[in-house]
Amino acid sequence: MARGELKTIKFQMMLSESEAKTLDDWAQEHGFKSRAEVIRRLCQLALLTDERAINIARNLRVLDYLALRFMKQVNVAYENYRSRKGRLTARLAEIADAHHEEIFDQVGDLSIDLQLVLETIQQMRSDKSLAEVAELMSRSRQRLLETSKALEVARQKRREERKRLQGVDFEDLQKRMEAVIRHSPDLELAQQAAHEEVNRWLDAAKARQEEIRKMQEERELFLAEKSQDQEANDGGSVDQGEA
Asked: 217: burial class by Cβ within 10 Å (0-12, 13-18, 19+)?
């Protein structure tokens, strides 16, 4: 909508008494003097917020999916490691670590869309012209889009770093270095011993990464097989019910 654009299109609209009263009450509450202006405001409000509704609905569906997947993996962990409490605790920690960032990211995206909707509603209730409101919302959308893109870049970097450092225990390295230096007669020998210890630590980290990779593959295969078995059982139940 261009600033200063002439309003030359006319059309007739029929309202019920309750609809007209609702419009009049809204106009009085927010300081507008004509029904025509109120209708223009509410139409623009609906158009500007509708474009965010798809994103909001998508983010809510993703959050629902993540929550469901989290609960399923927790239940699988309890079934598989019920008799091994130490391993169960470690597995639950792995599941929580894998999900918290995804859920946090979706909540962040949802907050951005909701913020734009709330800003739109607030501006529409002001005494600014529709052209001014549209221009403000356009700038706000651009700003939020840039924020969303920057967040996505940061998320991708975090995912890559987490994958690269998976299984790497920096606290263990710190403890090893401290032990080497404490037990070395001088710093020259400590330097050589520290170099050898770092290599051993790196080899252990690589082995741990490979172990985690195999565990993830086995877990994904197990979940896929279990899902297929569940689908087969559900299908059998349906067939029996129909029979």
From this structure: exposed
Q: What is the pLDDT of residues 162-221, one digit of tens each?
A: 778 777 888 888 888 999 999 988 888 899 999 999 999 999 888 888 887 887 787 778
Pair 23, 41: CB distance under 8 Å: no
The full DSSP string for 75-93 is: HHHHHHSTT-HHHHHHHHH
* 3-state DSSP helix/strand/coil % of the chain, to nearest 5: 85, 0, 15
pTM above 0.70, yes or no: no
Placement of tokens 């195999």 in the chain: 214
Give the whole-angstrom CA distance, residue 181 versus residue 194: 8
Q: Check: CB of residue 112 under 8 Å from CB of residue 148.
A: yes
Residues 99-119: what's their mean pLDDT?
74
pLDDT band at 97; cut points 50, 70, 90: low
CA distance 119 to 1: 18
Give the closest residue to 112 by CA, choosing from 67, 58, 156. 58
pLDDT reported for residue 238: 46
- Residue showing tokens 């008494």: 17
Say how far apart CA 223 and CA 72 lie, in whole Å. 10
- The tokens for 99 are 């999900």
